[in-house]
Amino acid sequence: MNDLPFLDLTLFLPLVGALVMVLIPKRWEALLRLAALVVTTATFVASLGVLASFESGTPGFQQVTELSWIPEWGIGYITGVDGVSLWMIMLTTFLMPLCILTSWTIKTQVKPYFILLLTLETGMLGVFSSLDMFLFYVFWEAVLVPMYFLIGMWGHGRRVYAAMKFFLFTLAGSLFMLLSILYLYFASQGSAAAPTFDYRSLVGTPLALEVQILLFLGFFASFAVKVPLVPLHTWLPDAHTEAPTAGSVMLAAVLLKMGAYGLIRFGIAFFPDAARLLAPAIIALAIVGILYGALIAIVQHDVKRLVAYSSVAHLGFVVLGLFVGTIQGMSGGILQMLNHGLSTGALFLLVGALYDRRHTREISEFGGLARSVPVLAGIFLIVVLSSLGLPGLNGFAGEFLVLLATYQSYGWWVIPATFGIVLAAIYLLWAYQRVFHGAVSIEANRNLEDFRMREYVMFVPLVALIVAIGVYPKPFLERIEPSAKQIVRQLNDASVIPETRGLAEAP
Amino acid sequence: MQGALTSPVDWHAIAPELVLTAFACLVLVVDLFLAERAKWLAMPLSAIGVLATGAATLSLVGSERTTLSGSYEIDAFALLLKGLFCVIGFIVLAISFDYFRSGIRYQGEYYFLLLCSLLGGLVMSSARDLVTIFIAIELISVPGFIMTGLRKGDPKSNEASLKFFLFGVLSTAVMLYGMSLIYGLSGGATRLDRIREAIDGSGNEPLVMLSVFFVVVGFGFKISAVPFHFWAPDTYEGAPSPVAAFLSTASKIGGFVGLLVLMFKAFPEVADIWRPVFAVLATLTMTVGNLIALKQRHIIRLLAYSGIAQSGYILVALALIDPSSPGVSRQALESALVYIAIYAVMDLGAFAAAVAYARRGGTYFIDDYAGLWQRSPVLATLLTGFLLSLAGAPPMAGAWAKLFVFLATINAQVYWLAVVMGVNAVIAAWYYLAVVKRMFFEAPELEGPVEVPYFLRAVMGVAALALLVVFIYPPVITELAERSIL
Amino acid sequence: MARSYFSQYLTIGLFLVVSVGLVMGTLQLARLLRPNVPSYEKYTTYESGIDPIGQGWAQTNVRYYIFALLFVVFDVEAVFLFPWAIVFERLGTQALIEMVIFIAILALALLYAVKKKVLDWL
After folding, report:
1. Residue range B186-217, pLDDT digits in tens
2. Which residues on chain B are in Cβ contact (under 8 Å) with C103?
3. Is cis: bond before A391, omega within 30 of 0?
């Protein structure tokens, strides 16, 4: 059982599915939907195999596959999971079938839509599981293309603008990352026999501090755009708002995590000294992000835009956790990545459900919906509460750990961060109140259809997971912690004093 | 000289050229005896000729030999490029078929000229002698002048032809002047290896510099590097589009091959002189090409400017060459070869799609690409594939082409050039995506489906598939390139 | 070496100056020596003793360019043929075959011209 390469199976099932779907005639829309659902569910099952064969308590990479790809450049196909990537992979595969289900309402261009979604899944999973820097970069870029089309073709309103902005922002960031990766590749020539892109050999490459800072900033440019950290966030509200529901879910739940994941896996692991040095600045940015995102969210009159800005705030917590330099912070940050994926993903799905019923996202167009759609309102409430970190639901564990760690390492810095939680309560509950409570002022809101079977299927597992993590986070944390511990050790271990390999002068 | 005249010729070594020459003549003669309705048969005949040339090239694989007393060399480098020229020729033929069959009277002459120009490319791949290089570059260009003007009734075509001709002649004159200086300097040597020996340690720096400068400027016109690019967009726009496709690939690559061979074989000892020149040229070419491309509304002009920008990346490889560290030079040359090969296929693909669309229910204006996805999903998908590849995005081979140039640049520790390339890649992505955006995100303004001829569709499909395969398994091309180092 | 290289150009330059000077000098000298009696007859264009008729601007039929082209074809052929003929005996059969190919290609051009009816006048 353990011999089955579950990880690679998970990685390529969606792509194979997409290729098969190319052969299905585009008129058979029902079959296409069903096929997409079957493929993503099968992928989820395969990823359960990854989870089952994951050994908790060990920090290193597991289930590693190693194949040669371009041997002369030291580029290989290397994949593996550890505690950091495991939950990201699970999150992706778990949310994907839900995205397919919520896309049942897509009526135009069904075939390319599902094919792009499946390709996107392979791209995202590839980002989380590749252990070869080149492979990572290729997947990183590969995610861009399907997302660009998803936003541009099936989005709303200013979709074209949003799609272009998304693409160019991310591309610009990732090119700096590429330069850093390539520099690292040649720097590894010193420590290894031949230069390599293998992540495991690259970690611990000795670099002079000023080189570390430059390279770190190269990676940071790419990841900070993706996370996003203020002031590089401006693509996010546009992209999230204009994307179709499934696209918004994937953007918020997974694509943003790619940035945070990159910061952990590469930013901190490759350049611990630079990360340590720059940590206060990054933490400051994170706190600014928390407050800024929350304050902007309060004044939004578009539900989806509100959720989008709440992501800016929540991801601020994640980055805060990653850089405070303690195990609680790191574990909390990683757990918060998972939680934000679930909660915000669920919020976008719910906003999508509202949009399908009313074809508007303006808060003022709603009001008193709790009477016509009680189930939807109830689930919305649970998700809102989880998003603002109510104890007993998933959001609490992560945010609590992050704040605790911030207090331990940075003292009073925790105050503005905590204020972010209060603000979250304000914008989320206020929006909830305006949408679901009060008098029904608009006739169209009176007789809305409540959840259908398809939607029950979507939300029951989501809510179950939200509650499960809130009540019993141990199985999640115990798989995260060994890896978190190792990364924190790398971050704090100042003994890695580099042999100087400075930036040589350009001719 | 007596020896040169009587030395036996290695007929097998020049078999590809002979086959192509024979077919070119055959096309010309057969065309004379064909009825007006049957003139299109010249195209299948030419295609057979190109395939036969390819076969002759394949029969030489694995052999290394020189003939014509050292001025003609068959090695992996030459064979790779000959193969590439055959591929280019075949794709251009596929693009031309529909275009010339309906509309232009001079079909037979066109195919004859095309084969002649292609022959120039084949000769260039093997030329290791100043005179041979000169003849090759002229053999590529001169038929090009005529092909550009084939749409006699169209003033734009005439303008294009005249511009191309004047700039071509000017560049030839400049190049020839440089070459004559070299000839004088090296004491009457024309073979590149002799020139290299003569220049090395001749202590004649200013003159060597001057002659290299003239040669580079001459080639700069041929490869339309900024600031010698002015003719290119007008010429491409006015020329029959398949000819524009040919000029932007075969003709340009011919120039690059000549430049690579000269710089590697004749002037490596004075690399310090010309390396910065290429760095500046590369920067200018990339940046100016991209910035002007941003404003284009005509797809052929867009491809022309983007092609200018793309050649900047190949120039980067020339700016990295350093005889004192063979590893860096090797990698630079390898990346240039990979780039050339991938560029040829993806650029031709984009041209093919543009021609197919303009001929079947569309125009050349980018605005009219709106909603192409709904009118012809196949064409829109293929064109998107080629444009993404040109932009250097996965999942197409263009990503690797750019990555290898980056890799070589970082290895040579020329970081500023890498940053310039990075910024340019983003600018380029903008205008490529602008076309994609129109095709997919906007509603169609023109009506009716777009039916691409089956043959052209098949060729485009194979080209796109090839780019995809190279992306998935790049050793297909990198190993070839690695073996083909000069 | 550079100096000697340039000094060769100097020789050419001197040669140019002297040759141009010689021509100009002779013309000026003639001007000084000859009598100067202008008349209408002397100022008309010289056309072998016949009185000039019409404008100096005359048009030629464009179709002559084809003859010019064909003339170049065979003119160039001759340029190659003469040196070849001189050393032909020493070069042997291979040279013969090569020259036959060369002439055959030129013959193709002629064939082309004939089939395109450029030799049919009007």
Report:
1. 888 888 888 888 887 666 678 888 888 899 99
2. none
3. no
**For residue C110, what are the domain limits?**
64-115
d(CA A62, CA A265): 15
Cβ within 8 Å of A, B 378-407: 388, 393-395, 399, 403, 406-407
CA distance A393 to A340: 12
Q: Are residues C70 and C28 in the same domain?
A: no
Closest CA to A228 of A293, A180, A284: A293
Return the structure tokens found at B435: 């076309």
The sign of the dihedral angle between the CA atoms of A367, A372, A373, A377 is: positive
For residue B66, give the 3-state DSSP assignment.
strand
Cβ neighbours, 10 Å, residue B207: 18
Asked if residue C47 belongs to a domain, the reply is no
Specify if C6 maps to a domain: yes
Kindly report, residue by residue over A218-268, the tens digit of the pLDDT.
898 889 888 888 888 888 888 888 888 888 999 888 999 999 999 888 888
User: Nearest residue of B to residue A109 by CA position?
Assistant: B374
Cβ pair A144:B393 closer than 8 A? yes
Asked which of A166-175, A353-362, B445-454 is least confident by mean pLDDT, the reply is: B445-454
Q: Residue A226: which of A266, A183, A198 has the closest Cα?
A: A266
Contacts of B371 (CB under 8 A, 6+ apart): B438, B439, B442, B443, B444, B445
Looking at chain B, the number of H-run helices and the number of E-run strands are 21, 2
Distance from chain centroid for Cα B246: 8
Domain ranges of chain B: 268-486
Give Cβ neighbours of residue B434 (< 8 Å, ≥ 6 apart): A164, B366
Distance CA B47, CA B206 (A): 48
Q: Is the CB of residue A484 less than 8 Å from the CB of residue A334?
A: yes
Decide if B398 contacts B467 (C-beta within 8 A).
yes
Residue C43 lies in a domain: no
DSSP labels for B189-201?
Answer: --BHHHHHHHHTT
Would you call A175 an interface residue with chain B, using a CB distance cutoff of 8 Å?
A: yes
Helix ranges (H only) for A324-393 are 327-358, 369-372, 374-387
The token duo for A7 is 């990880």
Closest by CA to B218, choosing from B121, B112, B159, B138, is: B138
Spatial contact of A242 and A147, defined as CB atoms under 8 Å apart: no
| Partner residue opposite A145 with nearest CB, options B393, B406, B437 | B393
Quick one: tokens of C12?
Answer: 């050419």
CA distance B207 to chain C (A): 8
- Closest-CA residue of A relative to B481 is A72
- Nearest to A80, CA basis, from A116, A144, A28, A125: A125
Residue B263 DSSP one-character state: I
Chain A touched by B227 (CB under 8 Å): no
Please judge whether B202 and C1 are an interchain contact, meaning their C-beta atoms are less than 8 angstroms apart: yes
Per-residue H/E/C for A45-108: HHHHHHHHCCCCCCCCCEEEEEEEEEHHHCEEEEEEECHHHHHHHHHHHHHHHHHHHHHHHCCC
Cβ(A217)–Cβ(A225) under 8 Å? Answer: no
Considering only alpha carbons, which residue of chain B is nearest residue C117? B32
Phi, psi of A54 (to 5 degrees): -75, 130
Provide Rg for chain A, Cα atoms: 22
Same domain, C106 and C69: yes
pTM of the model as a whole: 0.87
Do the domain assignments include residue C52? no
- Cβ atoms A65, A118 nearer than 8 A: no
Checking if the pLDDT of B461 tops 90, the result is yes
**Same domain membership, residue C68 and residue C110:** yes
**CB-based contact, C105 to chain B, within 8 Å:** yes
Number of domains within chain C: 2
